[in-house]
Structure formats: structure tokens, C-alpha cells
Amino acid sequence: MITRMPLFLLFLILKQYYCVQADSECLKLDISITQKVEHEGFHREIRWLIETTSPPSDIWVASACKLSLQLKVSPGIYVYPDEVAELNRTRKLLLHIDGHVDVEAPAHEATEHTVYIYLNNSNIGRISIVLPMHLRYQRGQITGGYGKVPLRKPSLLSWCPDSLDRICGKGVKVEAPCDETATRVCVWKNLTYQAHFDEVELFVPVGDLDDYPLVSIVTLLLGCAGCIYILSVLSMTHI
Ligand SMILES: *[C@@H]1O[C@H](CO)[C@@H](O)[C@H](O)[C@H]1NC(C)=O
Ligand SMILES: *[C@@H]1O[C@H](CO)[C@@H](O)[C@H](O)[C@H]1NC(C)=O
Ligand SMILES: *[C@@H]1O[C@H](CO)[C@@H](O)[C@H](O)[C@H]1NC(C)=O
């Protein structure tokens, strides 16, 4: 009993030492994200500026950890697969779309999809991302005017080859594709970041059913007037 005591103490000391060591060795990630939505109407661009003040780029690259942005796109919005496939092919934006995107569907018939954007490790200090997206047509309302579509905040996910706890802090585990090829699923850690923006709602013009008959009658009348004018000019030149 007495001979075992020092061994036990030694074990405690070693355990303490390694835990402190492991704790202080975790990478403290300090990331802020700014978001801007450009343009009006149906075609928009989300611009994110992702800035990392810690760790320095070389330490981050050496860790071989990866970052990705996960955006859950609400039914009123879609990312056009052909458009982003081109950006992905030219490696301007490495991304994967999870879920089927029906580009024809109006907002009330559409389903959600999720976009994963894989960030380039070598530029961790400052990464700017431009994601083109489109608003769906809203069901026409008697009142017309504008519909509102929520644009959610993206989640920032991290993955490290050795252990998820390589990055300090608690974070809920999330299953997501490892990279843009989406051939494997990895377990990522959902990180907190400083958001220099608020969750926003985008305004979409809504077809106004009230105006519809008036608009078609005016269009028809203008069309007739045009025809009559052309015909009269033509017959004048013949005379
Ligand atoms: C990441 O950025 C570096 C430096 O800008 C560039 O050389 C490299 O090709 C980029 N990697 C990818 C996968 O786009
Ligand atoms: C991006 O490119 C990879 C191949 O490099 C491909 O597997 C993936 O499907 C592409 N993603 C999109 C959204 O086109
Ligand atoms: C990640 O955490 C944020 C903030 O806690 C939360 O709003 C978001 O839904 C989480 N994302 C995932 C994919 O769990």
C-alpha cells in the first residue's frame, strides 16, 4: 500500500502536466465575419469577408486543419448549380451543394438546400468570398408589394486531422462532406465566430394580381397602336 503511493502521486502529476500541456497547445481561433448583400431584385451576391487574427497563417497551415462555411439556404432563395460549378471548376470557389435545387420552382413549392464552401488555408488571415444567388418568385398576392426572405447566418466548421480538440473551445459536432468532391463525410466542429452583421431579410417583388388585367390591356393597346402605325407607314410608302 505504502509503496504504491508514490507511483499514484507520480501518475497524478503526469496526468495534470499532460492535460495542461494539451490545453495550452490547442489552437485558439479568433475569426470574424462581415457579410454584405449586393444588388437589388432577383439576382444577388453575398459577400463574406473572413478575417483571422489568431493563429498566424504558418501555424494554421502546419496544423493541416480545414475550415468551411455551411449555409442553409431558405426555400425563397437558391444557389444556381451551373453558375457555381463554373466557379468551382476554375477553383475560385470550392463548394458542394447538398440537396436538389429546382431552379424553376416558386418559393412556396421549393425545398431547402445546403451549401458548403471550403476555405483556402493559405489565405486564412483574410479570405473574401462572393457567392451568387437568386431569389425565387413569390406567390402573387392581391396586395402586391414585396415578400420577405430570411438569409440565415452561415455556420463556421473546422476539421483537424489528429483531433477535433486541436482547436480550443467547445463546439457541437456536425457531420458534413470532407471536401468539395463530397466523396467522404467528416465530423466537423461548429465554431463560434464574431459576426459583424445581423441576420437579414431580403425583399422580393411580388407579382401584383390586381394590376394584372390593366397591364395586359395597356400592353395589348400599345401593341395594336404599333401595328396600325407600321401598316399606315407601309401603305403611305406604297401610294
Ligand atoms: C490557395 O491560395 C494560394 C495563394 O493565394 C494559391 O496559390 C492556391 O492555389 C490556392 N488553393 C486553392 C485550392 O485554390
Ligand atoms: C466541384 O468540383 C468537384 C471536383 O473537383 C466536384 O466533385 C464537385 O461536384 C463540384 N461541385 C459543384 C457544386 O459543382
Ligand atoms: C453552429 O452554432 C451556431 C451558434 O451556436 C448555430 O446557430 C448553428 O445552427 C450551428 N450550426 C450547426 C450546423 O450545427
Automatic annotation (TrEMBL):
Pathway: Glycolipid biosynthesis; glycosylphosphatidylinositol-anchor biosynthesis
Cellular localisation: Endoplasmic reticulum membrane
GO cellular component: endoplasmic reticulum membrane
Record keywords, A-Z: Endoplasmic reticulum, Glycoprotein, GPI-anchor biosynthesis, Membrane, Signal, Transmembrane, Transmembrane helix
Entry annotated with the keyword Endoplasmic reticulum: yes
Membrane topology per record: Single-pass membrane protein
One Pfam family in the UniProt entry: PIG-X
Residue ranges crossing the lipid bilayer per the database entry: 212-234
Keyword Glycoprotein: yes
Superkingdom assignment: Eukaryota
BP GO terms, sorted: GPI anchor biosynthetic process
InterPro entries in UniProt: PIG-X/PBN1, PIGX
Residues spanning the signal sequence: 1-22
Family stated for the protein in its record: Belongs to the PIGX family.
Protein purpose: Stabilizing subunit of the glycosylphosphatidylinositol-mannosyltransferase I complex which catalyzes the transfer of the first mannose, via an alpha-1,4 bond from a dolichol-phosphate-mannose (Dol-P-Man) to the glucosaminyl acyl phosphatidylinositol (GlcN-(acyl)PI) intermediate to generate alpha-D-Man-(1->4)-alpha-D-GlcN-(1->6)-(1-radyl,2-acyl-sn-glycero-3-phospho)-2-acyl-inositol and participates in the sixth step of the glycosylphosphatidylinositol-anchor biosynthesis. Probably acts by stabilizing the mannosyltransferase PIGM.
Protein name as annotated: Phosphatidylinositol-glycan biosynthesis class X protein
Organism whose genome encodes this protein: Exocentrus adspersus
UniProt lineage: Eukaryota, Metazoa, Ecdysozoa, Arthropoda, Hexapoda
